[in-house]
Amino acid sequence: PSITRGITVEIPKVSWDDIGGLKDLKKKLQQAVEWPIKYPVAFLRMGIAPIRGVLLHGPPGCSKTTLAKAVANATQASFFSLSGAELYSMYVGEGEALLRNTFRRARLTAPSIIFFDEADAVAGKRGGKSSGNISVGERLLSTLLTEMDGLEQAKGILVLAATNRPRAIDAALLRPGRFDLVLYVPPPDTESRYEILHVHTRKMKIASDVDLIKLAEDTELFTGAELEGLCREAGIVALREDIHATSVHDRHFQAVRRSLKPALTKAEID
Ligand code: ATP
């Protein structure tokens, strides 16, 4: 962690290789986000405005947070994380103060990435819980808009927001100069599931009877988070069987696979 005037900032250790699948999406993020942060002067010279905000949407557990961290790592940017739901639940005024403070700190330690999880809680369409005439959501939204509009060009600050409910996002945030790029992060297909299983078994001792291709085919609708859980659980099952075990076998993966049901349903996938 680097320290700037009393602020401790972490650059996440997640790299692009830790994310299985999503090849095109990674490329889009690299071009839209890495370049302006890495080469701000080139953008300035060409008179191109860098993207200030990216909205990632898609079902839970499919790597939106992990992607944001990989972007921060690739650009060596300080990473700030905010939860829309948390801001929303704070006392009147506290959420706005935290929001403003986060942008202030991000400016001090730029290049910075501000990751905004559950963005719909704050950036949702107008209306909702109210304090006086203006609702809590509206005050937070207007603070966010002010902060985003105030971001000076080419200063290396990017806001990455994530939501499971893109339709709930207020249209004001999708205007040019705000969230210019909207990307869908889909649940993994068979090939991506194989890559995710590969990522999460990399450091495990797995026996030669484990067939990750077959396991990928057999885990339709599983999210990255669920596949990660499956691998960990298989290791635990192996240890439970024999605390001196040296590797995880196919039967352990199968036992866990049989006990799990994916949370996503076909109908939920756009
Ligand atoms: P939420 O909407 O619930 O915040 P999310 O989309 O942000 O979910 P993450 O928090 O990034 O999802 O992912 C949860 C976990 O699942 C991570 O710890 C990550 O290791 C794993 N995971 C998800 N997708 C992938 C992937 N494509 N490759 C490797 N690991 C993945």
TrEMBL record:
GO terms for molecular function: ATP binding; ATP hydrolysis activity. Keywords: ATP-binding, Nucleotide-binding. It comes from the Eukaryota. Coiled coil: none annotated. Residues 50-189 form the AAA+ ATPase domain. Belongs to the AAA ATPase family. This is AAA+ ATPase domain-containing protein. The chain holds residues 287 to 556 of 578 of the full protein.
